[in-house]
Write a structure and sequence with these properties.
two-stranded antiparallel ribbon; mainly alpha; Phage_TLS_TfmB
């Protein structure tokens, strides 16, 4: 549930921009808002980071496929620039 609530908190970098990870200050703010007790936070943050890593893998594959599709759609002259 916490990971889903943080879906608007990705950081982006690159050109074109790609997700690079969740903003941890936003994740901890979400934990605060949900009233997650301090003793549960280390375990929960670890689980969120595992989900985040897997999400970044999937998002990276999607991005690479999208970029390849865009390159295939470009005229040959535009690809050699």
């Amino acid at each position: 549930m916490v990971f889903q609530r943080c879906q608007t908190q990705w950081t982006y970098a690159g050109d074109p921009p790609a997700q690079t990870g969740l903003r941890m200050e936003a994740v901890t703010a979400c934990l605060d808002a949900l009233g997650v007790p301090a003793e549960r936070r280390p375990d929960l943050l670890g689980r969120i980071q595992i989900i985040e890593m897997k999400a970044l893998e999937v998002l990276g594959r999607i991005r690479m496929a999208d970029l390849a599709r865009i390159r295939r759609q470009q005229p040959q002259s535009a690809r050699s620039r």
